[in-house]
Amino acid sequence: GSDKRVLPNIAIIPYFNIFRKIYFMANHVPECSDPLYYQLYVVSFDGKYLKRLTPEDAVHQVSMGEHTFVDTYSRVDAEPVTVIRALDGTLIRELERADVTGLLANGYRYPERFTVLADDGVTLLYGILVRPSGFEAGKEYPVIDYVYGGAQLYNVPRGFTWDNAMGREVMGGLQEFAQLGFAGIILDGRGTPGRGKAFHDFSWKGIHECAGLRDHVSCLPALKERFPFLDLKRVGIWGNSGGGYATVSAMLQYPDVYKAGVASAGNYDQRMYENSWTERYYGRYEEELYGKGDISRLASNLKG
């Protein structure tokens, strides 16, 4: 959770088998293409000899043993590979490589990773896009923005078999929607966790900001330039729980952008939601601030 990126890899570690070691997972790795690709590191008790043990630019799931560790790594656009390495990071052998040929033969499309600037014009954000099945160049396709908007989770999948920590909707159903001719996007706006305190603080006393909902809106023209097949006249949005609240917020705050929305199980008035969540991000009760969490105040804006 540090706002600073970890130190670069140190290639030479003398006396590796002598010093006492701490193994830990870290993100914000300079060599990785996504700040939320967690990697395994080792460091001595005195803070020397820091070394990254998982060299692949991917999400890593590690199981430690006494003399080795097993690592399964993947990305949304790269199938899982499982390897076994010595505790100094030396590759012993590849154990398994997932075969996804049957999945691809049945119409699955790899999501496409993208980066885009936030509404502030400075902060780099990360997301994915899923093209519609049977994609044809030159055509325009309606767009679904799958949103969560809670401040305690990032929403963009990183691993190939994404189901995130709460077991919520796998990739927002965008693969299924692709079979119906929709393009789909997922974006982590400002205020989501994992990228340091300054980035996360965007959500402090800002539950109604839905973890950077305005970033979703501002990024659409830039995505249109990169993916010209996106029809920005037909943009819909959906989400569950905090995503239900974010969906209704989007429909009422940006009615000229979002033409349709499906909101599932939303907490539409934060004053009536559980204090362990609301007070964590709003702080102690302030009538005016908490009132901003009641989305019915904007109901008259609805156009879609």
Brief descriptors of the model:
single chain; 6-stranded mixed β-sheet; 4-stranded antiparallel β-sheet; 7 helices; disordered N terminus
Blueprint (SSEs and pairs):
Blueprint: E1 21-26, E2 39-44, E3 51-52, E4 59-64, E5 68-75, E6 78-86, E7 91-97, H1 101-105, E8 112-117, E9 124-130, E10 141-146, H2 174-179, E11 183-188, H3 197-200, H4 213-226, E12 230-240, H5 242-253, E13 260-264, H6 275-282, H7 287-291
Parallel strand pairs: 10-11, 10-12, 12-13
Antiparallel strand pairs: 1-2, 2-3, 4-5, 5-6, 6-7, 8-9, 9-11
Please state how the strands of the largest beta sheet are arranged side by side: 8-9-11-10-12-13
Overall radius of gyration:
21 Å
**Mean pLDDT metric:** 91
What level of helicity do the residues show?
Answer: 10-25%
**How many DSSP helices?**
7
Low-confidence stretches: 1-15
Structural class, from secondary structure content? alpha+beta
Described by strand count, sense and barrel closure, the largest sheet is: 6 strands, mixed
3D structure, described in words:
A hairpin with a 4-residue loop joins β6 and β7. 18% of the residues lie in helices and 28% in strands. It has 304 residues and is an alpha+beta fold. The chain has helices at residues 101-105, 174-179, 197-200, 213-226, 242-253, 275-282, 287-291, and strands at residues 21-26, 39-44, 51-52, 59-64, 68-75, 78-86, 91-97, 112-117, 124-130, 141-146, 183-188, 230-240, 260-264.
